[in-house]
Amino acid sequence: MSVPLSLNYDMPHTSTDSDIPNFIASANRDLYYWRFCEQVKTFRGILVRYDRSCAKDVDLWVHFAIKLANVEELPLGFSLGSNQKYELPQFAFKNTSLKSLILMYIELNPYGSFNWSSLVFLSIASLDMKDGMLEKVLSGCPNLKHLELDSVLGISRLEVTSVKLTYLCIKDHHNENDDLCLEIFSHHLKYFELLGYCDEICLQQRNVSSLVSANLFWDYDDLVDEERNLEEECRYLKELLYSVAHVENLGLDCWFIELSTELTRS
User: Fold this and answer.
1) DSSP letter at 66?
2) Are 147 and 171 in contact (CB under 8 A)?
């Protein structure tokens, strides 16, 4: 029985921009060697930072993973952001082999509908979503079970209609409009996590009635005391806790516990 292979091209975080050309050249030589191999299950390609000069090389990596190797797992992206953004090539939006996809600092702009029919795990990080893009993504992933959104902008409403999508994780969410909150609707969601520093999230119990587990772990270390509005935080905390009060398993970090104590004393 053949053993599945994993190809890992992950630049060390200590690398600099000047190291990128040699790293890419080395990876491309390897891919030429592996181009006829049918046992590659995972391809991981992470550069320190994106520059337009390496666009064709990253396209080559995606082509290898999507078209030649038909990998099941594809973590792809960049450790740090830049003014230039890599755009996922159009041929990548139709694939039936991918089961797990992780994208970091990568733009999604499909010209038409797309199909990731086998995808069950999707993680999108550091992306400004255009209007309707997330809905388009979800409609092209009929078997998706696990969705993670990390530092994703441009979303004001998240409606999950799929029966199969039962896990949602939101990390470091920021509303571009301070007057808006992210509204979440799903009657099939079972597991929900809120991590990092997030602007207001609107959950209503009747819209997430199927939840059985919720973890609320926020990071407020970056806020100085004078920026904190205790009254506003308490109001939001009450609403958020009420929306998940029916779950069987509830995880809270020390900030939530501290604020809950302050709330009961007031």
Assistant:
1) I
2) no
Instruction: Kindly state the DSSP code that residue 248 receives in the 8-state scheme.
Output: S
And the tokens for 257? 């516990």
- Two tokens at 212? 């059985």
Q: At what angle do helices 230-243 and 254-265 cross, to 10 degrees?
A: 110
CB count in 10 Å sphere of residue 141: 23
Mind listing the pLDDT tens digit for each residue in 69-121? Answer: 999 999 999 998 888 889 999 999 999 999 999 999 999 988 888 899 999 99
- Count of Cβ atoms closer than 10 Å to residue 178 Cβ: 9
Helical H segments across the chain, by residue range:
20-34, 55-63, 133-139, 230-243, 254-265
Inter-axis angle of helices 20-34 and 55-63, to 10 degrees?
A: 30
Kindly report which listed range (22-31, 43-52, 241-250) carries the lowest average pLDDT score.
Answer: 241-250
Q: What is the DSSP letter of 177?
A: S
pTM for the model stands at 0.90
Which are the contacts of 204, defined by CB distance < 8 A and separation ≥ 6? 243
For 242, the token pair is: 């009420």
